[in-house]
Write a structure and sequence with these properties.
There is one protein chain. The protein is 33% helix and 30% strand. It is built from 3 helices and 7 strands; from the N terminus they run βαβββααβββ. The strands form 2 sheets. The protein has a 4-stranded mixed sheet with strand order 1-2-3-4, covered by helices on one side. Strands 5-6-7 form a 3-stranded antiparallel sheet, with helices on one face. Strand 5 and strand 6 form a beta hairpin. The two termini are 61 Å apart. This is Ribosome hibernation promoting factor. Pfam families: Ribosom_S30AE_C, Ribosomal_S30AE. It comes from Campylobacter gastrosuis. Keywords: Translation regulation.
Length: 175
């Protein structure tokens, strides 16, 4: 990561540069591809009050540039507040990336459904429901008896979706 730390209207000491550099390097823990960072520290005096401005610009690969501005009376506090806000933004970006990656893994697992079983993943076979016309419970029971299915989903005469299933004791259940 390219890091640039500059001071406007005052001279930066080595201690300030080291402090800011270490804080910026800590942002790499989010695993995002930070190409460059630029921290501009400037002194600001308005109405006889001294203060400091800190502006941090982070260039991320394949993303927009993140710019964060912060003011404070103390220079170190301005740096800390700026980097704290940058940390929140990068954490959110990291969460987006990992969440999307996790959803992609689920999608890949779903695409494998119906193919050969994989260790740790139960085999799920999708089926089409025949919901063309309402059926009597007796009709659905006959269909289930004449097939090798464990359960049968149908719409009854009252337009309720019902499930009739084979029980282990040889009887049938109805939801």
């Amino acid at each position: 990561m390219n890091t640039s730390i500059t001071g406007k209207q005052f001279e930066l000491t080595e201690a300030i540069k080291d402090y800011a550099n270490n804080a910026i390097d800590a942002l790499s823990k989010y695993g995002l591809d930070i190409i460059s960072s630029r921290l501009v520290l400037s002194a600001d005096e308005k109405n006889g009050k001294k203060g400091f401005n800190a502006e941090l610009a982070l260039n991320l690969a394949h993303k927009n540039t993140i710019v964060i501005k912060q003011k404070d009376k103390d220079l170190y506090a301005a740096i800390d507040l700026t980097l704290e806000r940058a940390s929140k933004v990068l954490r959110r970006e990291h969460d987006k990336v990992t969440t999307l990656k996790g959803k992609a893994d689920e999608k890949d697992a779903r695409s494998l459904i119906g193919s050969e079983p994989i260790d740790g993943i139960d085999e799920i076979v999708p089926t089409e429901l025949e919901l063309y016309k309402p059926q009597e419970i007796e009709e659905a029971l006959e269909k289930l008896k004449n097939s090798d299915m464990q359960f049968y989903v149908f719409n009854d005469i009252d337009a309720k979706m019902r499930v009739i299933y084979k029980r282990t004791d040889g009887k049938f259940g109805l939801f």
